[in-house]
Design goal:
Elements: E1 3-5, E2 8-16, H1 20-31, E3 36-40, H2 48-51, H3 70-75, H4 78-86, E4 99-101, E5 104-108, H5 113-120, E6 129-130, E7 148-151, E8 155-156, H6 158-166, E9 173-175, E10 179-182, E11 185-188, E12 191-200, H7 206-213, E13 221-232, E14 241-244, E15 252-258, E16 264-269, H8 271-275, H9 281-295, E17 305-316, E18 328-332, E19 335-339, H10 346-356
Parallel strand pairs: 2-3, 2-12, 3-9, 5-14, 12-19
Antiparallel strand pairs: 1-2, 4-8, 5-7, 6-7, 10-11, 11-12, 13-16, 13-17, 14-15, 15-16, 18-19
Helix pairs in contact: 1-6, 1-10
The structure holds flavin-adenine dinucleotide (FAD).
The site of flavin-adenine dinucleotide has 38 residues, from helix 1, strand 3, helix 2, helix 7 and strand 13.
Length: 384
């Protein structure tokens, strides 16, 4: 919603980036009565958001070293907060977002089963994890000798999420190509947009935006690459799972989606994707095939179609280059810079941006925006 006057618009806030961060912030601001304009330079959801696995983490993945550290504690309340939204009683109505699975399984290879069994018996994890009533179909085979636990972390459909967040506020979302920063706002495609605050929620794009805006004190960004793998086969059972090996990082994170023809696709991340950044696409596929054969030799992948996706995680820089513990949101003069660091942290960003905003001006919006609308990105497995 914006005030439009002869190629000049006045809003309380301009948001850059139509991924989960920008969309969640836009919805949060609108609920509180702010006039806001979200500017997207490519496709809605087209960065990390559409590449994400859609897991609503509660932090246990980061506790596999046996300690509930800062990262796992920061995530602890997030599944409950999302559950409320998915059930229509939370801050944003997400009842039309499909829940692909209401839980994940955490499983191990046979040889490390006893180590994870003793870890999950610790007091710190009491009540957060339990043995499942039955094995998931992908592990239900006599040759499987590992341990399996049920993790109360849902997996949601990310394309649905982007659509459901964007649709009710498309009047405030614009696609642009040309940008310059001016004294009290920005000029986009020849239109002067005056804004009390400017939010950078453009993922990896924040770096260039900060450089162009040039305000002092902006943070440094880091990009941590991943090389994800997709495999499509009509016989693949639904499998939403974190596989632990001997180390403290998951060997493999599997989520299940569908291609445009409705055939199942396993989307593979974890250690495979982290170490895969040194492999080219063909080698990464060979590596993934060998890993699946080693972990689940009973799953038939004959005739499967494979694809990889190289994508960066964009975050504020940390001294050791590791993942920051929580969401990042800071004000620099009239700018607010955000990185959720996980999709599941978006509600915290919405809250933080509201905390940093002056009260809404109360200006009555005119719904007559002259910009084109951005289209929604497709998931990378859509045509696999
Ligand atoms: C492979 C992978 C799997 C993941 N899985 C999970 C998971 O299961 N659960 C979880 O919680 N998190 C997960 N994450 C992390 C999560 O996806 C990200 O933290 C989150 O999506 C970041 O959202 P964002 O909106 O900040 O950035 P993005 O999703 O990258 O969105 C940025 C948007 O800004 C736009 N943009 C860029 N530059 C400009 C510009 N100059 N002007 C305007 N717009 C611009 C882009 O086109 C894009 O639409 C995963 C990440 C990856 C890479």
């Amino acid at each position: 919603m914006c005030i439009v006057t002869n190629k000049a618009i006045t809003v309380d806030v301009v948001i850059f980036g139509g991924g989960i961060a920008g969309l969640w912030i836009l919805r949060s601001l609108r609920i509180k009565g702010y006039t806001a304009l979200l500017l997207e330079s490519k496709h809605l959801g087209g960065g990390q958001t559409m590449a994400s696995q859609g897991v609503l983490h509660g932090g246990l993945k980061y506790a596999l070293n046996g300690k509930l550290g800062e990262s796992s504690e920061a995530l602890r309340d997030m599944p409950g907060r999302w559950k409320a939204c998915l059930e229509g009683v939370g801050e944003i109505d997400l009842t039309r977002v499909r829940v692909r699975s209401d839980h994940q399984v955490l499983w191990s290879e046979g040889k490390v089963a006893s180590r994870i069994t003793s870890f999950f018996a610790t007091k710190a994890l009491a009540g957060r994890i339990e043995k499942p009533g039955s094995l998931p179909p992908a592990l239900d085979h006599p040759a499987f000798k590992g341990a399996v636990y049920r993790l109360e972390e849902s997996v949601i459909d990310v394309p649905d999420l982007v659509r459901v967040l964007a649709e009710p506020v498309m009047d405030a979302i614009a696609h642009y190509t040309q940008l310059t920063f001016s004294g009290d706002g920005v000029v986009v495609d020849g239109v002067q947009v005056q804004a009390g605050r400017i939010v950078f929620a453009a993922g990896e794009g924040n770096e260039a935006l900060m450089a162009a805006a040039g305000a002092p004190g902006f943070p440094k960004m880091q990009a941590r690459p991943l090389h994800q793998v997709m495999v499509a086969h009509p016989e693949l059972p639904p499998f939403h799972a974190v596989c632990m090996g001997a180390g403290t990082r998951p060997v493999l994170v599997t989520t299940t989606h569908e291609n445009a023809a409705g055939s199942p696709v396993w989307y593979l991340g974890g250690h495979l994707a982290e170490t895969g950044v040194t492999r080219n696409a063909a080698d990464q596929v060979l590596h993934a095939q060998a890993e699946l054969r080693r972990l689940m030799p009973w799953i038939s992948l004959e005739g499967a179609r494979w694809r990889t996706l190289e994508i960066n995680r964009a975050e504020p820089a940390t001294p050791d280059g590791e993942k920051p513990a929580g969401a990042y949101c800071r004000a620099f003069e009239r700018f607010i810079v955000c990185w959720p660091t996980k999709l599941v942290m978006a509600p915290l960003l919405g809250e933080e941006v509201l905390r940093l905003m002056p009260p809404p001006t109360g200006a009555r919006p005119v719904l007559d925006l002259d910009f084109p609308r951005p289209v929604m990105a497709e998931p990378a497995w859509g045509d696999l």
